[in-house]
Every structure is written in C-alpha cells, then in structure tokens.
Amino acid sequence: MTGRKTLIPVRWHRKKDGTVFPVEITASHFIWNSRPVHIAAIRDISSRLEAEEERKRLEERLHRAEKMEALGTMAGGVAHDLNNILGVLVGYSELLLLKMPEDSPFRGHIINILESGKRSAAIIQDLLALTRRGVTVSKVLNLNRIIYDCLKTPEFETLKSLYPGVTFRTDLNPDLLNIKGSPVHLGKMVMNLLTNAAEASFEQGKVMIGTENRYLDSPVSGYDELKEGEHIILTVSDQGKGIAPKDIGRIFEPFYTKKMMGRSGTGLGLAVVWGAVKDHGGYIDVKSAEGEGTTFTLYFPAVREAEDTEQQKPLFSEYEGRNESILVVDDVEEQRKLALNMLTTLGYQATAVSSGEEALEYLQTTKVDLLVLDMIMTPGMDGLETYRRILEFSPKQKAVIVSGYSETDKVREVRELGAGAYIQKPYLMDKFGLAVRKVLDRN
Ligand SMILES: Nc1ncnc2c1ncn2[C@@H]1O[C@H](COP(=O)(O)OP(=O)(O)OP(=O)(O)O)[C@@H](O)[C@H]1O
Ligand SMILES: [Mg+2]
Which CATH architecture has domain 316-441? Predict the structure, then answer.
C-alpha cells in the first residue's frame, strides 16, 4: 500500500459567488486491490498567505526604519562637529559687526560671511534633523501659515523661475487645526516636497498643495502605520513622471537620488521630510503612477491649542550685562573663546575653563554669579554631572546650559536640578544674551 505523494502549493479556486481564493492541494497516489487510487486534500490557505504577506510587510518596514536610523546617526555625527566650527564663524562675524563703525567699507563683507554662515547652519540643521535629536517641536502653529510663508521665500521664487511651465495651486482649508512643531523644519519639509514635485514635472504641469482636517476613527496602514485620532493632512501632488514601484521603498533614504549632481540631487530632500514627519509624530504615505504623477500625503496629530505668537527681536539694552561674573565651561577652545568674547562685549566679567573637573576646582576658591555649561564634554564629566557636583557645595548656583542638540533627557534633568535656561548652539548674541540675563535676573 505504498505510493507517491504530490504537493501543489498554490492554486486558485473559485467559489460559487465568483470570488477567487488560494488553495493548497496534497494528493496521494497508490495501488489498492490492483487498481490505482488517488486521494486529494484541498485546503483553503487564504489566511496563511495573508499572515505571510503581513509578516513580510512588517519586516520591510522594520528594515527600512533601521537603515534610516543608522544613516541618520552618521549624518548627525558629522553635523554636530560642523556645527561647532560654524558657530565660531557666525559668532565672530556678529562680534565684528558690533564693533565696526557704521560707515566701514567692510561691513558688507562681514554681513556676507554672517549670512553664508547662517545658511550653512541651516543645512547642518537638515543633517541634525536626520538624527532626530536636533528638533524641538513645541510651538503651536498652523501649517497653512508655514505654507504661505514658504511661498513667499526667495527659494520658492528661484524654483518658480527654474520651472516656468509649472504652476503651483493651493487648496488650504481655512479652518485647519493647529499642530505642535518646529516652523523651520516644517518649512523645509514643504519646500523639499515642492522642489521634488517641480523637478519631476514635465514641461507643463500643475503642482497642488492641499491641507485638510481629518478624524481617523481606525488605524490606517499605508507606507506607514497610522494611529486613530484628529489629524491634519498635507498633500503635495504633481503630474510628473512618477516613481517606479521598485524605487518607492528607497526614496526616503538619505543620499538616495536619481538626479544628476548639480542644481539638486544630494538625495537629502526626502530624508529631511521623513525626519520632520517622524519628529512631529506624523505619518507619511506616497502614491505614484509612472508617467502620471505622484502624491505625498503627510499626517500630523492635531492639537486644540491656540497658535503661539511670534515674539519681537529684543533690544540690546534688554540683555546688556552689569558686570556680573560668569564662568564658561566648554571643552572646545574656539567655543570658549567665542562665548568669552560675546559675554565681555555684553558687559560681563567672564572666565573660561575647559572641563567639569577644572570648573569644580575653580569654584572652590572663586564664586561666580552664573555658569555657562556645555552639556557634552569629552573626556571627563558632562554638564549634568558637573552641575550636580557643584550644587553639592553651592546649592544656589545659577547656570545656563548649552548644547548642539535640542532638549534631551539629560538637559531636562539638569533643568530639573535648577539650571535656569537652555540654549542651543551656535551661540547667537541675542539668544545667548537674553538667556543669561533672564537667569541672572531671576530670584
Ligand atoms: N514628486 C516626485 N516625483 C517623482 N520622483 C520623485 C518625487 N519626489 C522624489 N522623487 C524621487 O526620489 C528621489 C529622492 O528624492 P530626494 O528629495 O530625497 O532627493 P533629490 O531630490 O534627488 O535630491 P535633493 O532633494 O537632495 O536635491 C529623487 O531623486 C526622485 O527620483
Ligand atoms: Mg529633492
């Protein structure tokens, strides 16, 4: 009674109502009473196949996330170092401008240096955004405003002049709910999407920018997993050449590009978009048809709070020093010098040391009104540890924390210990001056 077995893995059968479903067939063939006998078992395997598909999707998503993380970390490391170097450039240009007579013929040059420095700082912020450590998303804002502002920038004017056949249309919901976010990053995100849309367009084409509110009452699964709740949606669609299915999984990777180097084509655009969306707790979906166009759909969790209003640029007198004593603790020499220079210009008595250990020693013999404490110092104690030790013998010591990154857990911890303010590098005269003044004036 021995025989053969056959396995037919996936076949499609049709139900009475016409729907097609996958089956697996196992058949046994043997001889019984000198006659060939065939027994077949037909099993409906739709749920097994679905589960396999789902597992594959999850694996892909995980893989993609890990890759983004790794590339982001690398880019962020580079950016952190560059940020320090650039801070020196920007800082000294500001100082020079302050000290230079109004009618000096060199003012124009310095202003150019300062402006380029600030622009480079913006690019570095792009890179930092990729590490997800560079962004503070605390401002309540309306995305419509970000879009309007974006359409008024010189960058957008340049884009339009490069693609004169492309028209940009907006369809923005006037009752759009607010979100919590970082205006700079969201602006960049919008600009990158518009740039890509224009670059993908044919000679003539329309790019649509739309916003709307949407309540999702159940999770949605697209390129990303989407939670339920109130969202605002941004869509940017073009009628351009589209993205091939095999490429769509990679477009968000840093440095992935199909463009020629030159005007654009670093491949950072969508990586920044991805970073911004993630930083804002959002979701992204992309639908594309080759030769027809592409639509990026971005979801952000909505908030019911009122928009924060912009504050005015402060007057110099608001942050002038009154000869108070300040100790700067920073492991990078140029940064120390720069901080000292700014503080002296502002009217403080400033001294600097290069490590937490030195700071402790200095404070054994000398009292200062304020510490300016760098968060990340190598080797040796970091800002948090240093401050903790100082508080042991000088419990009322005021401090301003500085770091290249935005507010991390460590920074939060230092603030909980009582440090009055936190500022992000590069040192800018008014930001730095105001933070110092605020902490000194507090009782
Ligand atoms: N709207 C779009 N239509 C068609 N392809 C697109 C679109 N947006 C992005 N892509 C594809 O995704 C790739 C990555 O886009 P990304 O913005 O990250 O980099 P890039 O535009 O090539 O360079 P960069 O933005 O740094 O100048 C592009 O090279 C392009 O192939
Ligand atoms: Mg781009």
Answer: 3-Layer(aba) Sandwich (3.40)
Counting from 1 in the atom list of ligand 1, the atom nearest the Cα of 238 is: 1
DSSP lists the bridge partners of residue 135 as none
Q: How far does residue 313's CA lie from ligand 2's centre (Å)?
A: 33
CA of 257 to the centre of ligand 1 (A): 6
What's the pLDDT at 386? 94
Banded pLDDT at 313 (limits 50, 70, 90): low
Q: Which ligand is nearest to the CA of 252?
A: 1
The topology under which CATH files domain 139-301 is Heat Shock Protein 90 (3.30.565)
Partner residues linked to 28 by β-bridges:
5, 39
For the domain made up of 56-131, the CATH class stated in words is mainly alpha
Cα 294 to middle of ligand 1, angstroms: 11
Residue pLDDT, tens place only, 69-110: 777 777 777 777 788 788 888 889 988 988 889 899 898 889
Q: Which two tokens stand for residue 201?
A: 């367009």
| 219 DSSP 8-state letter | -
Compute the distance from residue 139 Cα to the ligand 2 centre, in Å: 26
The residue among 115 and 441 whose pLDDT is bigger is: 441
Closest protein CA for atom 31 of ligand 1: 258
Over 60: is that where the pLDDT of 1 sits?
no
Phi then psi dihedrals of residue 13, to 5 deg: -110, 160
State residue 266's pLDDT score. Answer: 67
Q: What share of the chain has pLDDT > 70, as a percent?
A: 90
Helix (H) or strand (E) holding 271: helix 269-279
Average pLDDT of 422-426? 81
What confidence tier does 265 reach under pLDDT thresholds 50, 70, 90? low
Torsion angles phi and psi, residue 401, rounded to 5: -100, 135
Q: How far is the CA of 125 from the centre of ligand 1 (A)?
A: 19
**Candidate from 188, 270, 296 with most ligand 1 atoms within 8 A of CB, to mutate:** 270
Enumerate the domain spans of the chain. Answer: 3-44, 56-131, 139-301, 316-441
The span from the CA of 421 to the CA of 418, in Å, is 9
Reported as half-sphere exposure (CB side, CA atoms, 13 A), residue 241 has a value of 10
Residue keyed to tokens 């049709």: 14
In this prediction, residue 262 has a pLDDT band, given cuts at 50, 70 and 90, of very low
Question: Between residues 73 and 163, which one has the greater pLDDT?
Answer: 163
What is the best residue among 126, 237, 253, 257 to mutate for testing ligand 1's pocket, by most ligand atoms within 8 Å of CB? 257
Nearest atom in ligand 1 to 254's CA: 18
